[in-house]
C-alpha cells in the first residue's frame, strides 16, 4: 500500500475521482504516482475509450462553448471530432488521470483544461503563413544537441523529451513526445549520458554562463538518480550560480510530491538544500495556466515544497478560451501567490504549428497586464512577456517598437552585443 502525506484529508478527493471510469479506485491508489503513470491516457485509442466512459451520451448545452463547437450534441460526435483533431495535431496524446479528473466532463466543449490537452477538429484554424515548427529557433541556437544557448549568461539543458502530459501548445512540439501524423520528431532528445556529457563540457568551457534551466520535455521524467547527477554536476561548476528544474508535475500529477518515499522529490529537495549551502540556488519552475488546476493536491504539494525550502516559480501561457480574460488571470495569479508559488511569467502564445485556435492577439496580453499591474502586490505580479519568434529571446510584451493592430504585426528591437547590430524581430497576431 503506498503511503502519502494527506494533511488536509481526503475530503474533496471523492469529487475529484467521481468519474465512472475510476469509480472503483480507492483514494490512496488514485493518488499513488505509479498508479497515475500506469493509468495515464496515451494515444487516440485509449483516449477514445476514456471519452466513451467519461462523457454523457448527450453533450449538455453549454453557453460558454465557442460557436464552432455548438453543433456537437452527442458523445459520438465529440469523440469523432477529437479523433479528427488528433490527426492534425503536432503533439501526441498523453494526459494523467489527475488532469482528467480536473476536467468538467459535463462541459467538455468549453472546459479550459480540456482545451489545453485534447484537440477538436472543429476548432482547427490554418497555421499563420509566418509560423515555423521550431518557432524559437532552438535547434539553430544549440552549440551541441540538446543545449540551447540563446542568452549571454543562460542556457537550456534539454535532458529528456517526454512529459507526464502533452500540452497542445508546446513550444517544443518539434521534438517533445511521440511522433504524430503531422510531425515526425526526428530531433527528439533521448536521455543519453554521452549527449549530456557534451552538454556539460560546453557549460564548463563557457564561463559567461551562470544560469541553467534543466528541462525537456519535463523534469518530472528525469530519473531521480539522473536529476541528482545533473544538479550535482552543474553545481560543481564554479560559474554556475542558479539551476531551474522545469516541471509541470506540480500541476498535472502533484500527489507524487506528497509521497514521502518518492525519490524524485527527495532529489529536488536535496539539490535545493545543497545549493543553498553553496550560496547557489536550485528552484522548480512550474506551469499552471488556469485556477481549476490549483487542486487541493497541488496546494498540499506546494506547501510541502515551501516547508522544505524549495523556491517554486510559475510560468503561465496566455491561451484563448483558457485564461485570456482579466478575471481568470487575476484569480490564477493570486492563487499562485497564496500558495507561495512565485508568479514569474505570463507568456504571449508562441507561433506554434497546429494551435492557432489557442493563440490570442498581442493586444490581449497588453490589456490584461494593464488591468493587473498595480492591482496585485508588485512582488506577486508576473512579467508579461513575449518569446520572440526566430530566437530573439524574451521581451516585455509592452516593449514593442511598433504594433499595427489592423495588420496584427508587431516589431521588437533586440540590442546587438559584442559589436553586432540591433536586430528586429516580428510577431504576428493570428489572422
Ligand atoms: S509539459 Fe512543457 S515540455 Fe511538456 S508538452 Fe507541456 S509545455 Fe511542452
From TrEMBL:
What cofactors are annotated for this protein? pyridoxal 5'-phosphate
Keyword Iron (UniProt) = yes
- Annotated InterPro entries: Aldolase_TIM, Lys_aminomutase/Glu_NH3_mut, rSAM, rSAM_sf
Task: Give the UniProt keywords, A-Z.
Answer: 4Fe-4S, Iron, Iron-sulfur, Metal-binding, Pyridoxal phosphate, S-adenosyl-L-methionine
Q: Does the keyword Iron apply?
A: yes
Q: Which GO terms describe its molecular function?
A: 4 iron, 4 sulfur cluster binding; catalytic activity; metal ion binding
Q: Which PANTHER family match?
A: L-LYSINE 2,3-AMINOMUTASE AQ_1632-RELATED, LYSINE 2,3-AMINOMUTASE-RELATED
Provide the protein name.
Kama family protein
Q: Which organism is it from?
A: Lentinula raphanica
